[in-house]
Amino acid sequence: MAKVLIIGAGGVSNVVVHKCAQVSEVFDEIVLASRTKSKCDTIAASLSRPITSEQVDADNVPQMVALIKKHKPDLVLNVALPFQDLPIMDACLETGVDYLDTANYEPIDEAKFEYKWQWAYQDRFKEKGIMALLGSGFDPGVTNVFCAYAQKHFFDEIYTVDIVDCNAGEHGHPFATNFNPEINIREITQKGKYWENGQWKEIDPMSISLDVDYPEVGPRRSYLLYHEELESLVKHIKGLKRIRFWMTFGQAYITHLQVLQNVGMTSIVPVEYEGRKIVPLQFLKAVLPDPGSLGTNYKGKTCIGCIFNGVKNSQQKNLMIYNVCDHAECYKETGAQAVSYTTGVPAMIGAKMMLTGQWKKPGVWHMEQFDPDPFMEALNKYGLPWKILEGKTLEN
Ligand code: NDP
Questions:
Q1: What is the pTM of this model?
Q2: What domain range is 303 assigned to?
Q3: Is there an atom of ligand 1 within 6 Å of 232 CB?
């Protein structure tokens, strides 16, 4: 029995809270805190058991410390934005409480995804005897666990990994992002990057693409992007020669994005407007649909997985591990679309792993550094069943 403090009350949080509330044998008490308390109250009102709502500015470490001291949680589960990762980790250090997030820290004034800032907490977390689990969403998160599972059960050495992320759903809006627009657009408009033969190779944004045949969905154009789990997986997967990340985008999405970029609306450099500074991308976020509200008419499926090539008992082997998730079914269960759902469920499972002691050691860790088996079992149990496709390559 444990008490969890969840920070952030957006699309992903809504799913995390629903899922934690379902698993009452572990999550005995739930406190939900965010910048706008009314959003916490709305989520609380949609549940069948009571939780506590609070207001907090998570950028403010003393406020976070006071909140943690007031509620004395066993774990702080951060599903606010990547900008809040470090202040929340600071507050956890000060109060001696475990930490979990779903996205790596980014400085607000620079679209740069690197773990160096969070890895710098390793010694302090160890000395304090507390744990941080980084990136417990789907990608990063489940994709890291798929890699650990493939390494443990199917390969002596993995040579290549292609992480493939397809959203074949339709939400009915001409342009919308499936998670926080600011974070999503920063991710897509930066340079692409992959790792091959010990080196990072950088490419122009969206300049490499191919058709991937996704199980239960079919062929979809997929673009090579940089994604944060690549940085930890190159350190932890044995024998790796290449790792890449691919994501699908429809032509209408790409055209909208190009226009927005061309007119300067995706810039994170502040501009002067009627006597005050505004960040164009933050303004754009304010006029785009809230990702948390997209679920209502969302139809279709997501398919996210990892395609491996490697060797087992001296034999070459290809294999894919993946999950398919249906937007409408996610909405029926939690009021959220599948992108929020596929992130929120693994966040709850990661928290459960820590609180039940199945994954527990002081320090700052990635998902692939733990035994994948109990997590994989939990995915099947809590709404994200996975499948294995033998012989699958990126091309077939
Ligand atoms: P939303 O924008 O819907 O929600 C973010 C929430 O954080 C909002 O409630 C917001 O409050 C709150 N927040 C922002 N700043 C602060 C602050 N200073 N103090 C307290 N609360 C704050 O985002 P999503 O739910 O779509 O995404 C949540 C996280 O999940 C992001 O970090 C995202 O990158 C990550 N993610 C990870 C994925 C994965 O697979 N690993 C996939 C998708 C998302 P307010 O409402 O007042 O603005």
A1: 0.96
A2: 142-335+386-390
A3: no
Ligand 1 geometric centre to CA of 152 (Å): 33
Q: Is the CB of 151 under 6 A from ligand 1?
A: no
* Structural domains counted in the chain: 2
Cβ 183 under 6 angstroms from ligand 1: yes
314 shares a domain with 205: yes
pLDDT for 179 = 87
What pLDDT does 23 receive? 97
Residue 122, in any domain of the structure: yes
Same domain, 171 and 75: no
Based on the domain organization, do 294 and 154 belong to the same domain?
Answer: yes
- Residue 142 beta carbon below 6 angstroms from any ligand 1 atom: no
Burial 252-280 (b: 16+ CB within 10 A, else e): ebeeebeebeeeeebebeeeeeeeeeebb
Give the tens place of pLDDT for each residue, 178-223. 888 888 898 888 999 999 999 999 999 999 999 999 999 999 999 9
| Closest residue CA from atom 11 of ligand 1 | 35
Q: Please indicate, yes or no, if residue 56 is contained in any of the structural domains.
A: yes
Spatial CB neighbours of 318, under 8 Å, sequence gap ≥ 6: 307, 308, 309, 390, 391, 392, 393
pLDDT digits (tens, 9 = 90+) for 132-153: 999 999 999 999 999 999 999 9
